[in-house]
Each structure stands twice: as structure tokens, then as C-alpha cells.
Amino acid sequence: xxxxxxxxxxxxxxxxxxxxxxxxxxxxxxxxxxxxxxxxxxxxxxxxxxxxxxxxxxxxxxxxxxxxxxxxxxxxxxxxxxxxxxxxxxxxxxxxxxxxxxxxxxxxxxxxxxxxxxxxxxxxxxxxxxxxxxxxxxxxxxxxxxxxxxxxxxx
Amino acid sequence: xxxxxxxxxxxxxxxxxxxxxxxxxxxxxxxxxxxxxxxxxxxxxxxxxxxxxxxxxxxxxxxxxxxxxxxxxxxxxxxxxxxxxxxxxxxxxxxxxxxxxxxxxxxxxxxxxxxxxxxxxxxxxxxxxxxxxxxxxxxxxxxxxxxxxxxxxxxxxxxxxxxxxxxxxxxxxxxxxxxxxxxxxxxxxxxxxxxxxxxxxxxxxxxxxxxxxxxxxxxxxxxxxxxxxxxxxxxxxxxxxxxxxxxxxxxxxxxxxxxxxxxxxxxxxxxxxxxxxxxxxxxxxxxxxxxxxxxxxxxxxxxxxxxxxxxxxxxxxxxxxxxxxxxxxxxxxxxxxxxxxxxxxxxxxxxxxxxxxxxxxxxxxxxxxxxxxxxxxxxxxxxxxxxxxxxxxxxxxxxxxxxxxxxxxxxxxxxxxxxxxxxxxxxxxxxxxxxxxxxxxxxxxxxxxxxxxxxxxxxxxxxxxxxxxxxxxxxxxxxxxxxxxxxxxxxxxxxxxxxxxxxxxxxxxxxxxxxxxxxxxxxxxxxxxxxxxxxxxxxxxxxxxxxxxxxxxxxxxxxxxxxxxxxxxxxxxxxxxxxxxxxxxxxxxxxxxxxxxxxxxxxxxxxxxxxxxxxxxxxxxxx
Lengths: 155, 623
Hints:
The complex is a heterodimer. Chain A is an alpha+beta fold.
């Protein structure tokens, strides 16, 4: 069995085979592998006795359930109005320049993916970004780059 | 925590905890509480907490250093509450190590006040004999939902019990039938705080009346409205109050299983809630035979995956069932057929957080706060161009002026107040003429906005209202689930028209189309998201019509936000001919001799603004 198949069967074991365990299983895969591969979705469909289209249809509905490969670290910059009013565009531009990628892309070394997100609930402390599970509020372009440089060094 | 087997045992434990606390208070010279919600942590509050523990010990001061939730002064994080023995606690803001040192040396040791004091601007409703219900006259805030945030340690069930926790549940289980308890909630007049504004007690009653062996209580913690973050703060600062309220609700409607649907973007809230559930289970406050009765109830978590529409209750239920989070037509309401087809009661976090106090202080007490049709208090999240961003909780019927100028400290940099958006992308904007309108469900709807979940984004003269409407639509276009066409296609078209207007290519005809289409989307969409998504457009058109006109007829954006309509000019009298602008212009649109005034060729200029940034002589003007 491949790594992904192992992971799927582990998750199925843990959450069960009913329809309402689909979300926790998908989320479990994303947590481990950073995205849902075709292999993973087919395997889940087989285990839960659903059509693969159904699994893909559900997964593609949710922003956090990625179906394309993502980098090791996912950066999500909030793009909603209060962060926009406080200058999120400049923060995104600075990050794009530092990582040499555009929003939606992943760096060549697969270490970073830069994404935008709708409201992260930090409206009083915008602009804000989420790197994996860590929140960084009150950003300036300079501060954002410093934070990211620390991540780059840690790689 | 030992297992609490009965109501009497709960009371005993509380008395014992109270005694322990009093002994500690006598032993300790000082109690320091550091606000450790995510916003505090992000501002360095963990380091401050460690600094206090280490330094107080080093300097031989008997002290207790504790963590607590958000105190609401988000603009001044990290915030620290210091209570010297026998004195009223005081709160300090912007605490870094230097200020912490100052606090220890001067305030704690000598009682000399130091900089950074934040005057307490709220009163807390509570039911504890050791903390009397003092209501400072001047305070416009009363904290009900936020009563424990910033007061108790969210990771400690003992602290929650000490503050009257789980007593409402004990009261209800021992003294009331489910029907009586539901009547109490109806009598309180509490309405859903998540946006719907439906009478909570009525919802419980309907779910109670549905016949089924299996029923569910669901807590909607999928807070996604831009501008709202009170649910996160409650879960981070007082998770047990939500657990207790869910248990009360379960008893009332006859459910055995509770689910919290929480957004994945709130990792700390998830941690604290899981921790609290674990503690409650250990103490026998969740599980079987709760407090020695025949009532069984347990709670599990379901995680959102970044879809705003899942805040709509039918969509939320579908998502929990493992489907796409698409809403369905009501009826059937979740109270008849919800999660897995069983009767389900869905309430928002803030609604649940009000419940325990309603039972402790009585529906009649709750009923005295607020206006004729909107009872109790509402938490508002202040954000945008306001001085004191943060969470406030005011009685229904407080005016916008009080919230923004009195509690919120007015507009940043002394600019002119322009509008406030309430209710997020589903609400509308209110202007200076609404400042004295009492805020309640009815008045906000009448003014073309809505209560929503309580986000308030304040805008000043530098904000372009057409762009604001566009940004909200940007949000709805992306978050529309795509099931019904008015919302999927209509919002997209609305967005395109607004794009066109902000690019300076709009016409009067576009304004008519915009208004007509907005009404169509509002009237024909399937769920609350689509039915309310044109609100920002309609309300900005209503209140700022002249700005729309300027955009289409004069091709002018008075706030200077719509870049496409701006033109850059060089003021001859200021230009010294240093050539900084010409050298930095990426498209070589600036020409002129050295030491002579320069000019910008408007046909080449791409309005990037580099010249404006580079000029040291304020010679570049934007018109």
C-alpha cells in the first residue's frame, strides 16, 4: 500500500465510513499532505462507497481543501475590506517580490504558496496573514517580509 | 477536577474554591492577569506573562500571575490587569518589558501610578456574592456575553465555576421542566445574535415540539462576516459558557448530542474549546447522568474549511453531513429536519453565551435591558478607521454616536466620519444622519442595514463608497456557493458594473442597471447570502448617490481611491528640478531639464504613484 492509501485507511478507521465522516477525512489528508491528490480522492471514494466525482465535488467547494499541490508553508493574506483599507495590497506586492511568485503560485523549491483569503476575523488588526496556523496581524510590507525571511531561514 | 455528582456538590466546590481564592488573595501581595487571546499573543503577551512571573519571583514579591481572555481593549494590546491586595484592579495597556518593569517597581511595590492606565469603561453583569453588581454610572457598556472574557482563566474550569459557572445548568436540571426553561428564554426576549434575529426561545420550542428520538444542538461558530470577531473572543476567553448553554439547550429540546461547527481559521479557539470540553467531561458536566440526573449530553467538534456560506444554518448542516455547503429552501426548518434529517437547533456563539446569565438573573432582569423589541445587549466589533478598535458590548438601543465617538474614541487622525458598515457584506452603511439612531434590530433594518453578527467597519473621508460597495461584492461573488443563478450570476454582473464605474468608464445607464439588478438579486436569491448581498450597493447608492454621479459624469473620485480616475500633475512652483521623479518613473512619462520644472505626459502615465512617493518637495499633485 502506498503512503496515501495508508493514510486514508487510517483516517477511515478513525472517523468511520458514513457520509458525515467525509469532511474530517478530507481535512485529515490536507493536514498531512498539504493537498488532496487524485490518488487520495479515488481511495476515499472507494472506502466510503461514493463516486469520485462526488468526493471531488465536495472537496472543491471548500477553499481550505486544496486539490492542487501546495508548498510546505501556506501563506494566506486576508483581502477583505478592513485589511484592504489598511494596505493589504502593498503587503501582497512585497511578498510577491520577495518570493518571486504571484498570488496563487508556489515557489520552485515547493516551500511556500502565496494565497489570499476572505476575512480571517482580524479586522481590528489588519492587514493580517496566516502562515499555516500562525496569525500575523498589523503587517506592514517590511514586517511581512521580515516574518517570511525568518521562515525562509528555517527551511 | 473531581467528578461533580450533584447540585449540592457543585455548590460545595464553589464555596471551597472561593475560600481558596480568598486565602490566596491574603497571601499574595498582587494578582497580575495577562490577556492571552490570539490578538494579545500576537502582540507579545506570552513574553509579558513570562516576564511578570520571572521578575516578580526574582524581586521577592508574593504574586499570582494568571492568563485570561480578551479584555476588549484590542487597540492597546498587550493588556494587563493588576490587582494589589485590598484594592480595585487596574488595567494597563501597551505593556512591553519596559512598562512591565515600571509597573512592578512603581505600581506594585510602591502603589505609585504609572503610564498606560486604561480606564475601565464597562460594567459586568454577574451573579456572584463576592463581586457585587456594581454598575458605574458613566459606563455605557454592560457585559453579558463577554462577562467572563478578560476576567477568568479560559483554561480553568475551576475559575469558571468560581464565577458562577454551571450553576445555571444545575438550576435548570433540578428546578425546571424543559417547558418552563423554554418559557424563561422566550420571556427574556433574546434574539439570535448571529444575524437572523429570530427569537431564540421560539426556536427551542419548535425543536422541542418536533417528535424524534434523536435531536441535535448545534453551535454555529463559523463566524465569517468581514468585521466581526466576537465569537472568536468568546470561545477563546470563556469556552465553558458556550458548553453550559448548549447543555441547557439540549435539556430543553430533548437532545443528547451537541456539535460545534467552528472555522478552521481559529486555531486557538479550537484548542481552548477542546480543552474545556475535556475538563467538563472529567467533571461530569458532560457525558451521562450529568449532576446526578438522568440527563445525558456530549459535545463534539466539526471544522469548517473556508466557506462563508456555511454560516447559513442549512448550509452548515449540509457541510457537517459531508456534503457541499449549499443552502436549501426553508421549510423544512432545521427544527423539523436538520442534521441527518433529525430536529436540530442551531444557535450562534454569542446567543449561547447569554443563556447562563438569563437563568441566573432571570428573564425579567434581561428584559429590562434594551428596547421594546430588542432585548439585552449586543457585542460589536469595532474596526476600520476608529481610534479604539476592539470589542464592546452595549445595551440594545445605544446610539451609533455613543459607540463610535464615546466608547470607540472617534475617528483616527481627527478625520471626518463618513460612514459605518454594519452587518458585514449583508448589511448596509449608515451615515452621519444615522448617528443618533438607537441601534436595535428594527432600526437598523429600517435604515437599510442590518444587525448581522455585529461587525462595524468605520470609514472616513478617505474612503470611496463606490469602492467599498465593490469590495463587499468582491467578497460575495467569491463566497456565493453557486447553487442559484441570481446570486451566482447576478452578483458577478453587479461587480462588473461597479468595476466599470471605478475604472471611470461608467454611464448613467449603468447606474440604472446596477439598481435594477440589485433588486432582482435581492428578491430572487435562494438563501440569506444572496438576498442580502446587494445591500451594500443599494445603501451606498441611497446615501452617497452624489459620489456615484461624480464617478460616472465627472469621472472623479473625491476620496482619491479609484486610481484610474486620478491624474498626476507637477506643481511648477514647488518643483526644483531634482529629477528624482523622472529617474524613477517606470514608463519615462516625466520630462524636463535639470533644475527646471518638470512635466508629466498624461498619455504615457500609468498612475503608479512612484513620482508622488519619490518627490521630497511636495511638488506632485493628484487631481
